[in-house]
Design goal:
- This protein has ten helices and 14 strands.
- The chain is 32% helix and 17% strand.
- The protein is an alpha/beta fold.
- It is globular.
- The strands form three sheets. Strands 7-8-9-10-11-12-13-14 form an eight-stranded parallel beta barrel, surrounded by seven helices.
- Helix 2 runs parallel beside helix 3.
- The structure holds phosphoenolpyruvate and manganese (II) ion.
- The site of phosphoenolpyruvate (PEP) has 9 residues, from loops.
């Protein structure tokens, strides 16, 4: 079962309940840093005759186990999950625009971009230190040095950042710097990586595999949740289609479908879906209109010199113009 604590539950109330559960032999996973603390309690046979847990101070509700069901499923929790990334809540009815370069290439490139997107109203930064490249001979990312620059950009702008992790051996390193960890499309089915990010305390952004169904994507989220991490945001980023006119086909249907099937926030990455910048603004507007909780936008101060994904990157001034459009669409659909 899951015990949902009230948003205003005190640390003492949480600790007191955990102690009580431990004392009767229950295994408890505490998931803090979310809109509210969740206690994931197993070994239920030991709990028979105990409770009712709703009566304990600070408890809001108790969600019983659904046999064979998914914890990320709507049937498990009717209420929308709000995922907190540092000070930024995702899924609370406000628009979250995440912006920055595809890859951290240099200190200058990152700071220029970070300052510009912050000024335009982005609420989170993106930028990768580990890049999943098609060829092993192309730029693979700056690694730890890139993470250090991202932490500096966070200092400079006050915005939390998300960065990709490729290898289970790097999860701890990335989690020690990033406010949110991203699993890319190529790793959506990498179950050992999903379990590893599920075991740490940072929220996770899970991109849809480019050949994955919505059900497979949600099952991947369940792998993360099964290890105790319920801070998961789904990201639609386009699937492989038969039409080569854009890099991928952005599946906007997946947004309301995933929101019906799960209680997780859903975002859209029009930059990686399109692969070309002229499509980024129309797809981003459509994503907000269809009900996404936010979008991820690639921005680069000199896209022609970008080491990765230059053709899809917006210039800072193009990004600023897009932000004005997105605000209007958000207002129209009732997103703050
Ligand atoms: C990215 O966001 O930089 C990225 C590599 O995206 P995807 O995994 O969707 O290709
Ligand atoms: Mn990219």
């Amino acid at each position: 079962m899951i015990i949902v604590m009230r948003p205003d539950a005190t640390e003492e109330e949480v600790a007191g309940l955990v102690e009580r559960l431990h004392s009767i032999g229950a295994v408890v996973r505490v998931s803090p840093e979310r809109a509210r603390t969740l206690l994931d309690v197993s070994a239920e046979s030991l709990l028979e005759g105990e409770g009712p847990w709703e009566m304990f101070p600070g408890v809001e509700s108790v969600i019983p186990e659904v046999p064979g069901g998914r914890r990320v499923g709507r049937e498990f929790m009717r209420e929308d999950t709000v995922v907190s990334v540092g000070p930024v809540p995702i899924g609370d009815g406000s628009l979250v625009v995440v912006a920055g370069p595809c890859a951290v290439e240099s200190r200058d490139q990152l700071m220029t971009t970070a300052t510009a997107v912050t000024g335009a109203g982005a609420r989170m930064l993106r930028g990768d230190a580990f890049k999943p490249r098609t060829s092993p001979y192309t730029f693979q990312g700056l690694g730890k040095a890139g993470l250090e620059m991202l932490a500096e950009a966070r200092e400079l702008t006050g915005l939390p950042f998300v960065a990709e992790v490729l290898d289970p051996r790097d999860v701890e390193l990335v989690a020690s710097y990033a406010d949110m960890i991203r699993i890319g499309t190529r790793n959506m089915s990498n179950h050992s990586l999903l379990r590893e990010v599920g075991r740490q305390s940072r929220p996770v952004m899970l991109k849809r595999g480019m050949g994955a169904t919505v059900e497979e994507w949600i099952d991947a989220a369940e792998y993360v949740h099964s290890e105790g991490n319920n801070g998961i945001v789904l990201v639609e980023r386009g699937v492989r289609g038969f039409d080569g006119s854009a890099r991928n086909t952005l599946d906007l249907t997946a947004v309301p479908v995933a929101k019906t099937l799960t209680h997780l926030p859903v975002m859209v990455d029009p930059s990686h879906a399109a692969g070309r910048k002229d499509l980024v603004a129309p797809l981003a507007r459509a994503a907000v209109a269809v009900g996404a909780d936010g979008v991820l936008i690639d921005v680069h101060p000199s896209p022609e010199e970008a080491l990765v994904d230059g053709p899809q990157a917006l210039l800072p001034e193009e990004f600023a113009a897009l932000m004005v459009e997105l605000r209007a669409v958000a207002d129209a659909v009732g997103l703050r």
